[in-house]
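Pipeline run #58 for the internal structure catalog. This entry was flagged by the ingest filter as a single-chain record with no existing model, so it goes straight to prediction. Upstream metadata was stripped on purpose; only the residue string is passed forward. Reviewer on rotation: M.T. Logging verbosity set to normal.
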Amino acid sequence: MDSNRFDTLTRLVGSGSSRRELFRRAGSVAAGGALLMAGIGVTGAAPGGGHAFGKKKVGVCHKTGGSGYLFKQLPTPALKGHVRHGDIVCDNPCLIASGCNVDGTCAGTIVADSTVVTGGTCCGGAAVDTQTDPANCGTCGVVCDSTVAAVCSNGACVAA
């Protein structure tokens, strides 16, 4: 029995599960160990043990069977199926996602203002284009005066 299976078995014994559940899982662990000793590996697993090595991983708030969400890091090719099932992709480049809020929105650490990311510059937790955004013209927080119909052009407020 390898160390992972032994750890799983000891967690099960200490978890307060029913005897039926303990015997069912212990049987699975024993059968898996017997197959490994016989030289038969687990079938259907992707190379790399399912870790999708080399693939870019993206955070998602995975909709659980109940009414909650669980934060997961998934390889990009798996996103399409998860989105179809109601999972929410954490795609805000100004948020280092590490969890999920009750409503399924992504939670985490907001990147500092003026940090350049894919999609623009972070201002107030959102990626904006400081070359054209009248609320963040040239840098975060510089607002073009709307009373004179100013617009943001090339990072400067100019009359429209």
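catalog note: Confidence is low (pLDDT under 50) at residues 31-50.
catalog note: The chain has three domains: 3-37, 57-110, 117-159.
status: ready for reviewer M.T.
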